[in-house]
């Protein structure tokens, strides 16, 4: 069977799972062949020798198993990152968090940044690639995440700009370090929230933030403030703007703002704390 025929055949099995079944089958074929899209379009008439392997991947994808876990790859900010099954899959919305950070960091000489919950490393790696004189400490409680983030830092040639530390929030971070910014995409979903089927395959400790959902976010705000760090940037849940805005009133804040994601949902915030005298 030709590559073109395989795409047509197996796309039919994914039509109820994704709105781009043909494209996803192409991605799986490229994964098996280790080729690029241009090669595929030039050679779709060739016989495909890995149909059995493709069939297995398609059947697994048909259960709503994430495509990124099948290919062990994800795109973020125009770059390709390694993905592992015990680590959260990168989301396009997190690119907005990186954008917000860059706007601030470009105005700071030799900025020092702490990332809480590094996951696959997408935030720290992109900041390290885009801000020339930056230094970053990236923490996580998940050993698999730390190893994956290191792998991605090496892949993108920025391992000299990022120090990876196992830590629960600030627990293992020295008070002697003067950070300019803390950035985080922490777990913020309420524990009793029913997840979409495809998300159920991802690690729960990277998704659930407590009974209400914003508990971890509030801890990050409190601890960042107590460390006298000027800027805090975080992702949050679409329904958490009002309670967080109320929570902000308990701190000495110079200014804050919320931003929306690509679907026009509230998705994150930027805080600039007042400098304590």
Please render the helix and strand layout as text.
Layout (H helix, E strand, L loop, with lengths): L2 H9 L9 H13 L3 H7 L7 H11 L5 H5 L1 E4 L2 E4 L11 H12 L6 E5 L5 H9 L4 E6 L2 H13 L6 E5 L14 E4 L4 E2 L17 E3 L4 H12 L4 E5 L5 H8 L4 E8 L5 E8 L4
Parallel strand pairs: 3-4, 3-6, 4-5, 6-9, 7-8
Antiparallel strand pairs: 1-2, 9-11, 10-11
GO molecular function: peptide chain release factor N(5)-glutamine methyltransferase activity
Enzyme class: transferase
InterPro entries: HemK-like (IPR004556), N5-glutamine_MTase (IPR050320), PrmC_N (IPR040758), RF_methyltr_PrmC (IPR019874), SAM-dependent_MTases_sf (IPR029063), Small_mtfrase_dom (IPR007848)
What is the assigned CATH homologous superfamily of the largest domain?
A: Vaccinia Virus protein VP39
Helix percent reads 25-40%
Provide the low-confidence segments as ranges. none
Total strand count, please?
A: 11
Query: Under the CATH scheme, which architecture of the largest domain would be assigned?
Result: 3-Layer(aba) Sandwich
Structural class estimated from helices and strands: alpha/beta
Would you give the CATH topology of the largest domain? Rossmann fold
Number of domains: 2
Strand content: 15-25%
Q: Characterize the largest beta sheet: strand count, sense, and whether it forms a barrel.
A: 7 strands, mixed
What is the molecular shape? elongated
Q: Average pLDDT across residues?
A: 95
Radius of gyration: 21 Å
- Secondary-structure element sequence? HHHHHEEHEHEHEEEEHEHEE
Count of helix runs: 10
CATH classification class of the largest domain: Alpha Beta
- Order of neighbouring strands in the sheet with most strands: 5-4-3-6-9-11-10
For the terminal residues, how far apart are their CA atoms? 73 Å
Keywords: Methyltransferase, S-adenosyl-L-methionine, Transferase
Protein name: peptide chain release factor N(5)-glutamine methyltransferase
Domain Release factor glutamine methyltransferase N-terminal: 8-71
InterPro entries: HemK-like, N5-glutamine_MTase, PrmC_N, RF_methyltr_PrmC, SAM-dependent_MTases_sf, Small_mtfrase_dom
């Amino acid at each position: 069977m030709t590559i073109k025929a395989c795409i047509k055949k197996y796309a039919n099995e994914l039509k109820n799972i994704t709105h781009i079944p043909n494209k996803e089958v192409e991605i799986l074929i490229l994964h098996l062949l280790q080729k690029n899209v241009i090669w595929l379009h030039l050679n779709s008439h060739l016989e495909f020798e890995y149909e059995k392997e493709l069939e297995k991947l398609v059947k697994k994808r048909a259960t709503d198993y994430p495509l990124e876990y099948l290919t062990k790859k994800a795109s973020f900010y125009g770059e390709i990152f390694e993905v592992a099954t015990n680590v959260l899959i990168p989301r396009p919305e997190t690119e907005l968090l990186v954008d917000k950070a860059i706007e601030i960091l470009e105005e700071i000489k030799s900025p020092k940044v702490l990332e809480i919950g590094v996951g696959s490393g997408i935030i720290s790696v992109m900041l390290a690639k885009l801000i020339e004189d930056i230094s970053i400490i990236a923490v996580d409680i998940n050993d698999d995440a730390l190893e994956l983030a290191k792998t991605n830092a090496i892949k993108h040639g920025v391992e000299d700009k990022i120090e990876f530390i196992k830590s629960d929030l600030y627990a293992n971070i020295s008070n002697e370090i003067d950070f300019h910014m803390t950035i985080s995409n922490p777990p913020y979903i309420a524990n009793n929230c029913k997840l979409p089927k495809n998300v159920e395959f991802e690690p729960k400790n990277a998704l659930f933030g407590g009974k209400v959902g914003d508990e971890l976010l509030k801890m990050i705000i409190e601890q960042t403030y107590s460390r006298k760090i000027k800027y805090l940037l975080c992702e949050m849940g679409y329904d958490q703007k009002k309670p967080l805005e109320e929570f902000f009133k308990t701190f000495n804040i110079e200014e804050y703002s919320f931003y929306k994601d690509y679907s026009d949902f509230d998705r994150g915030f930027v805080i600039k704390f007042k400098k304590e005298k």
